[in-house]
Amino acid sequence: MNGIIVYASKYGSTREYALLIAQKLGVEALRASEVPSEKVRRPHYVVLGSPIYAYSVLPEMEAFLESNREILEGKPLAAFVVCGDTMWNPKAGEGGSKNLEKLTRFLSAEPFTTAIFGGRMRMEELDEEDGPRIRAFYERIGREATGFDRMEPGDVDPFVDRINEFLASGV
Question: Which domains does the chain have, with CATH numbers?
Answer without folding.
Answer: 3-168 (3.40.50.360)
